[in-house]
Amino acid sequence: MNPNFSVKAVVSTIVLSLLFLACDEVIEYSPYQNIVKSKWKKQNISNYNKLLPKANEPFTPFRIGLIADSHTYYDEFEKQVEYINTRDDLDFIIHLGDITLSANSREFNWYSDVMNKIKIPVITLIGNHDCLGNGYDIYSEMFGESNFFFEYKDVKFVMFDDIIWEKKVSDPDFEWFDKALVNDSDYKYVLPFAHIPPWDQQFTVGNEFLYNQILLRHNLDLSIHGHGHSYSYSQPYDDVHYLSVPSPERNQLIILDVQPDTIKHEVIKY
């Protein structure tokens, strides 16, 4: 008998035991399985609840931060979070989507680990990359509905899921969007947000036209988007202004300044 056999067997047993004990941290059966930590479930709901009762107060000027497309830019996203935490003039943050590259559960958890270092509440939209594989289901469990709206200080924020290709649909739910944009409580402003801007190649010419026409029908003059990874502010159709939010690699933060008679924005280089 090999005198080292028993020692090798013990060592092998210990190593295998350690691997199996750590497998939930190291190994995923499938990158697309739906694994959401209990503390990260329904984050949009829990974060909005943190804004209460301030959200129900009458209108007073406020400022929010806009970020987008943090996928693949984790170091830059950490830096962006650190900068946000140096400011004391923001009420909350809106992330315009694409929090993952491949929509696996590990990426969703990475995002949540970093995002929850922000000292103020964050509302997270869905992006096209977040809909790959089983991503839509993971997003739904982690954040809630992908089409939703909420009120903050007499302003209605409408979050529109306009993803097409990755969800394998022909059209976004424009019927929902049209109804959600109704100013049904005499809001001071109604603000639409969506990951993909209407001029993107995912939109047909008809859908591009329809998106803008819906905004015009509701007398809205601002629409806010991610997806492009760089800042732009343009007026490609009629009277509607389109604000595109950069990814963290640009080292920029967009501040939306909501005033009684106008909405301004500022591009901060940090």
Key features of this structure:
270 residues, alpha/beta, Purple Acid Phosphatase, chain A, domain 2, 6-stranded mixed beta sheet, 5-stranded mixed beta sheet, 8 helices, 11 strands, 22% strand, globular
Descriptive report:
With 270 residues, this protein is of the alpha/beta class. It has one domain (31-269): Metallo-dependent phosphatases (Purple Acid Phosphatase, chain A, domain 2). It is built from eight helices and eleven strands. It has helices at residues 5-21, 23-26, 43-51, 74-84, 105-115, 135-143, 174-180, 205-217; strands at residues 62-67, 92-95, 122-124, 148-152, 155-160, 189-194, 222-225, 232-237, 240-244, 252-258, 263-269. A hairpin with a 2-residue loop joins β4 and β5 (155-160).
Helix and strand arrangement:
Layout: H1 5-21, H2 23-26, H3 43-51, E1 62-67, H4 74-84, E2 92-95, H5 105-115, E3 122-124, H6 135-143, E4 148-152, E5 155-160, H7 174-180, E6 189-194, H8 205-217, E7 222-225, E8 232-237, E9 240-244, E10 252-258, E11 263-269
Parallel strand pairs: 1-2, 2-3, 5-6, 6-7, 7-9
Antiparallel strand pairs: 1-10, 4-5, 8-9, 10-11
